[in-house]
Amino acid sequence: MNKKIQEPEEKEISKAVIGRLPRYFRYLAELKDEGVERISSMELSQLMQVTASQIRQDFNNFGGFGQQGYGYNVAYLYGEIGKLLGLDETHRLIVIGAGNLGQALANYANFESRGFLIKGLFDTRKEILGKKVRGIEIMPMEQLETFIAGNDIDIAVLTIPKTEALAVSKRLADCGIRGIWNFAHIDLDLPKSVKVEDVHLSDSLMKLSYAMKREG
Questions:
Q1: How far apart are CA 158 and CA 181, in angstroms?
Q2: Do the beta carbons of residue 27 and residue 46 sit within 8 Å?
């Protein structure tokens, strides 16, 4: 019988472990789609280039599961990690900043398969207001608070200049937004109740450049 993953209430899980959960989820999704029913930590380690010991340690942070000599039930593990990541719930998003990046994110249909539904786009530029992206109309910022209140929005995506991001983020926090996916190059000073995930695209590119230089 599979043991359900439970995040211990008093144990703080490291950011490194949390950071690996989406990768486990992605690989398990592929295995499930291929019809694989069971997999051992050793087999999973060979696919992911993570040691079997590391995989077992990661899973033990959540109570551990699987059976010795049996391995992991792929569909069950996929479902449980999905729950840890909050993917058993539907999240309703808005995008603030409907420029090239904002529109690209709104056009990315795979978000929906993970339960992330983009419900609104907002911008300050009059020339693009009223335009639709995948059927979603770009609205003026004046409608922000009313839209959030009427559409049960819990996540906001910021793709705006850093000069505007702090003031906008405070408006979002006041509206009860629970999470912000922040593409603006600024650290947001918000209440702890608002979770922020910063995305610095240039940082990733610089890491790639560093790796290439080291190999060179």
A1: 6
A2: no
Q: What is the largest CA-CA distance in the chain?
A: 63
Going along 22-85, which residue ranges are E strands? 38-39, 72-73
Tokens 């380690």, residue located: 45
d(CA 96, CA 183): 10
Sorted by where each starts, the structural domains of the chain and their CATH numbers stand as 15-84 (1.10.10.10), 91-203 (3.40.50.720)
Burial of 185 (0-12, 13-18, 19+ CB in 10 A): middle
**Residue owning tokens 């077992």:** 56
Range name among 32-36, 55-59, 195-199 with the lowest pLDDT average: 55-59
pLDDT per residue as tens digits for the range 41-81: 999 999 999 999 999 899 888 876 665 567 889 999 999 99
Which token pair is 135? 């059927």
The rounded distance, in Å, linking the Cα atoms of 10 and 16 is 18
Q: 128-161, pLDDT tens digit by residue?
A: 999 999 999 999 999 999 999 999 999 999 999 9
Q: Where are the beta strands (DSSP E) in 88-210?
A: 91-96, 116-123, 132-133, 136-140, 155-158, 179-182, 195-198
pTM of the predicted model, to two decimals? Answer: 0.84
For residue 18, give every residue at least 6 positions away whose Cβ sits within 8 Å of its Cβ, in sequence order, or none: none
Separation CA 157–CA 16 (nearest Å)? 23
